[in-house]
Design brief:
- With 355 residues, this protein is an alpha+beta fold.
- 52% of the residues lie in helices and 14% in strands.
- A hairpin with a 2-residue loop joins strand 6 and strand 7.
- Helix 4 runs antiparallel to helix 5 and helix 4 runs parallel beside helix 6.
Length: 355
């Protein structure tokens, strides 16, 4: 289950709009800035020295992709805002790792903030990561909350000149970065569907309370994912309807494809959510059936011993006038009766298919 810290947003209560406060986990990791530049002929990447972090200068006649990993350095993020003339509220949203996904268009740039689910813990659960993208003319800024390798495939695609990525503008880079984030939702939801299939088989074989706890956790995760995807789908749909002077018509068609992907993932999330209550019912039914089997066996054993207990108790009474007590074969005869009663009841139960 993703950690959703409570109380962080209270840091902003009472503050005027545009005040820059980092809302999120404070880490000891230093911020990293990577500057990629490319054209159809070449690709270059440069990691800025960590002791001299600054805003890189855009290289003319090339597409510039600047990636900032880590949001703890508020002054550096503010400097990016000044250099690229970002609205103060946009810079504030970049620093807010609890912000709802959205897309906003300004005069000379498009702002997108969303959650990535690429990072996983050792137990297989995901860690949501806030990612913000700024699309401008011949540049894209990326602000990552965590040092995840989510954009590694995009880097390799540009470095190896795969497809037409290097022949297109910054709007296509914006699309590729958005698309790779959405594709990771596929992986997360597909992995959860696989877990649900495994849980269903486990319920039928060895149901345990651990399974019920796992299902509860997965249900919360699916609700969390759905809350991230729906506003993102609406934002991408609105961008496609209104258009943008920074996004080419052909690239807009690719963005529409991401809208289709989001719809598919949302439907998968809904299907998984509907499956979980059924699995919980199956778990309760299996546990109840197992308990009924135990109770049936105990009832049968008790039913067999009721007449035996009566017979033994009858001859255990200390009355003097009990003829059977003086009979030579009384003890052996009692055993014959006990065995006969037991055998008869077992045969009766089997005929009724209770055993």
């Amino acid at each position: 289950m993703p950690n959703r810290p409570h109380g962080r947003i209270t840091q902003k209560i009472g503050k005027p709009p545009g005040v820059l406060i980092h809302v999120g986990s404070t880490t000891n990791e230093r911020v990293e800035v990577v500057h990629y530049t490319y054209s159809a002929e070449s690709f270059k990447s440069e990691i800025l020295p960590k002791d001299k972090l600054s805003v890189p200068t855009l290289v003319p006649n090339r597409i510039n992709w600047i990636k900032v990993v880590g949001l703890a350095d508020v002054n550096l993020i503010a400097e990016f805002g000044k250099q690229f003339d970002l609205h103060p509220l946009v810079v504030e949203d970049i620093l807010d790792t609890e912000h709802t996904p959205k897309i906003e268009e300004y005069e000379h740039y498009v702002f997108l903030t969303l959650k990535s689910l690429a990072v996983k813990r050792l137990d297989g659960s995901f860690i949501p990561e806030q990612v913000s993208l700024i699309l401008g003319k011949d540049y894209v800024l990326v602000f990552q909350e965590l040092p995840s390798p989510i954009f590694k495939l995009v880097e390799e695609r540009l470095a190896n000149a795969q497809g037409r990525a290097r022949d297109r503008g910054s709007d296509y880079l914006f699309y590729m970065l958005t698309d790779v984030i959405i594709d990771h939702y596929y992986q997360v939801v597909d992995d959860m569907n696989g877990q649900l299939d495994a849980i269903e088989e486990e319920i039928l074989v060895t149901p345990s309370e651990r399974i019920l706890n796992k299902l509860q956790g997965m249900r919360r995760e699916l609700v969390f994912i759905r809350r991230l995807l729906i506003p993102l789908r609406d934002a991408v749909g609105n961008l496609h309807k209104t258009g943008s002077h920074l996004i080419d018509t052909n690239t807009m068609q690719y963005l529409l494809d991401t809208w289709d992907h989001l719809n598919y993932v949302i439907n998968e999330v809904e299907s998984a959510r509907e499956l979980i209550p059924g699995l919980m019912d199956l778990y309760m039914s299996t546990v109840s059936k197992s308990m009924n089997e135990v109770m049936k066996v105990l009832t049968i054993v008790g039913s067999i011993f009721i007449p035996l207990t009566f017979i033994v108790g009858l001859y255990g009474m200390n009355f003097t006038n009990m003829p059977e007590l003086g009979w030579r074969y009384g003890y052996a005869g009692l055993w014959v009766i006990l065995i006969g009663v037991t055998s008869g009841m077992v045969m009766y139960f089997r005929r009724k298919k209770w055993l």
